[in-house]
Amino acid sequence: MFLFVLFISIFFTPFCLSVNRNDAPIIGVLAQELRSSRTSQRAYIAASYVKFLEAAGARVVPVMINQAPEEYKKLFNSINGILLPGGGVNITSSGYERAAKFFYELAIEANKREDYFPVWGTCLGFEQLIYLTSGKNLLTNTETSGLALPLNFTKEAKTSRIFQAFPAELMADLSSEPLTVNSHNWSLAVLTYNKNDELRKFYKVVSTNTDGNVEFVSTMEAYDYPIYGTQWHPEKNAFEWSRPYNPHSPSAIRTTFYMAEFLVSEARKNFHTFESKEEESKALIYNYNPIYTGTTGYFEQMYIF
Ligand SMILES: *[C@@H]1O[C@H](CO)[C@@H](O)[C@H](O)[C@H]1NC(C)=O
Ligand SMILES: *[C@@H]1O[C@H](CO)[C@@H](O)[C@H](O)[C@H]1NC(C)=O
Ligand SMILES: *[C@@H]1O[C@H](CO)[C@@H](O)[C@H](O)[C@H]1NC(C)=O
């Protein structure tokens, strides 16, 4: 029996799975309600998140909103991580929130069983993580809707996982040049974080920023889980052009790449796979075509479902 199992597992192990690294990671990107069409149940993903992950060697599967729990569970066991993108939906009641909660809870359980499953939140996704971890809406209104800022690294940044592989020169640029795009009206104030036990025990604050009045958390990572959040947008520097404050300097572009590189390297530690190659092909984002929305919209290209 043992030999049989060994034979089966050797036979079916694809070439791309080395002993402890998955060189064909597939990351889910969560869709969200299109604001202009609340009644028609349409949803979208900004293409920049897809390009962000693809640039660092991952493939992408869209995670649709309003699916059945069994569907989400099956998908969770097929992908190697999930990205909760920025956007504008309700973080306490929306299809985005319900799906994010489902994957967040499955990820916590999986990681407890040593099934390493990364969860990444960008902007709205960051705010969603704060809500999921604390169970409360703890955000503060800030004047941060549309500007690029340098990061104010905390002392703990030195021991952070996110920035470990960043070149020293890029870290210096990140802390002195406006390379991180902020496009949010709500933030987690450092004062709020300091007063909340759940958040303090769960997340290490890696960087902060201020709007002049409120100091807020801009980068965080969970102490005991591969769960990460940036209030800023690493994907925009290389892939979004519709706003004058999106920085495109060489260091800005490297910031996009190194952030993606980190997240994808986390996903390579997960070994979930689809049940078959056919299931995998059917799920990939390649089945959908992005449309060019940059002339009128906020995003250069969008997938609309
Ligand atoms: C989000 O939804 C909740 C529950 O329906 C509601 O109370 C809250 O006002 C909404 N928040 C926003 C920002 O619309
Ligand atoms: C950086 O953070 C420190 C404390 O965390 C704060 O005292 C300082 O004012 C911040 N600097 C900027 C430019 O935000
Ligand atoms: C912030 O709020 C202002 C005023 O309501 C709005 O015009 C802007 O689009 C909002 N920004 C973001 C990023 O949600």
From TrEMBL:
It is found in: Secreted, Extracellular space. The active site is at residues 123, 233. GO terms for cellular component: extracellular region; vacuole. Residues 1-18 form the signal peptide. Keywords: Hydrolase, Secreted, Signal. One of its GO terms (molecular function) is gamma-glutamyl-peptidase activity. It catalyses: (6S)-5,6,7,8-tetrahydrofolyl-(gamma-L-Glu)(n) + (n-1) H2O = (6S)-5,6,7,8-tetrahydrofolate + (n-1) L-glutamate. GO terms for biological process: tetrahydrofolylpolyglutamate metabolic process. Gene3D superfamilies: 3.40.50.880. Its main location: secreted. Its EC number is 3.4.19.9. It is an enzyme of class 3 (hydrolase). SUPFAM superfamilies: Class I glutamine amidotransferase-like. It comes from the Eukaryota. Belongs to the peptidase C26 family. This is folate gamma-glutamyl hydrolase. It comes from Nothobranchius furzeri.
